[in-house]
Amino acid sequence: MGVEICVEGLTKSFGHQVIWQDVSLTLPAGEVSVMLGPSGTGKSVFLKTLVGLLRPDRGSVTIAGQDVTKLREHELYEVRKLFGVLFQDGALFGSMHLYDNIAFPLREHTRKPESEIRRIVLEKMDMVGLIGAEEKLPGEISGGMRKRAGLARALVLDPEIILFDEPDSGLDPVRVAYLNQLIVDLNAQIDATFLIVTHDIASARQVPDNIGLLFRRELVMFGPREQLLTSDEPVVRQFLNGRMQGPIGMAEEKDAAQVEQELAQLGEREGRNAKGESGPKAATDTGMTPRLLPSPGLARPPRWEAIAKREAKPEAKAEPEDEAKPAHKTDQREAAVTDI
Ligand SMILES: Nc1ncnc2c1ncn2[C@@H]1O[C@H](COP(=O)(O)OP(=O)(O)OP(=O)(O)O)[C@@H](O)[C@H]1O
């Protein structure tokens, strides 16, 4: 299960406001990818464009041989069946019990008998740890439970692709940790292609196979997790370390002189020069974070062995030919598999 999503030269604007341009990347089938970026850089717009809810100005989104951007409404309806989407608040119907909320897509899109619907709903509720909460209303449960109910609903049509829009927003750190484990376990079980938009750096470091970063109306970088975690690109380093020094400002971009001065000061502390290039002591915040593994007893997808080997020798990734490049200029997956 799981299908590849191939995005090429995608540009989206609203009126004169360009949201992002020339975005190219491949979300590999069955893998987990995370999209990061400061607020307002168009991550949600990107998700909506993948599902065909928004039309781009230029470019293509190829899924299972079809360019989503060119499809008519009735064709999009079919392609959307490949997707499960977990919206920020779970997007549950407030007046429906969880059971009916989760059964909703099955009743809307299939002709399955109620006995079959019951089997599927209970199976998905079990997967997200919600057995026993069938009769609860969304208003009676915690935010974490609402997210899990939204996830169960996203799963009922057995999607090949699951999009998560800030699944961790509004959750405490412990609930986020449980949710991350659930995401990793689900991916191991159903092997669908996952794309997660998040602001939670700890999650972005541990959960995905691939990370992308949107900034300044473009995709700064997209590539395997270890390449971004060890990258010297100033925007990537600033974002993954959640600090003020660097090109990303409070509300807008900073001017070049200010960025240079900040990075020089930071570099003095960490042994790097103003461009962010590494010196002997620069490893402080570019280290690898251990990957979150599926729970014991879950079979790991076949790609895990290759990824584990690759990550076991991240120093090999630091060599120039293996460096993550701006995603629209090179195919990151080629670089990713060179030493597997
Ligand atoms: N339908 C729309 N019409 C006009 N502008 C829109 C529309 N949808 C989004 N935008 C604009 O696109 C920009 C990007 O919005 P988006 O919600 O995708 O950002 P984001 O990166 O997901 O932000 P956050 O991290 O804060 O959720 C914003 O300036 C927003 O106002």
TrEMBL record:
GO terms for molecular function: ATP binding. Keywords: ATP-binding, Nucleotide-binding, Transport. The keyword ATP-binding applies. Residues 302-340 have a biased composition (Basic and acidic residues). Residues 5-241 form the ABC transporter domain. It comes from the Bacteria. The keyword Transit peptide does not apply. Residues 267-340 are annotated as: Disordered. Pfam families: ABC_tran. InterPro entries: AAA+_ATPase, ABC_transporter-like_ATP-bd, ABC_transporter-like_CS, P-loop_NTPase. This is ABC transporter ATP-binding protein. It comes from Streptomyces chengmaiensis.
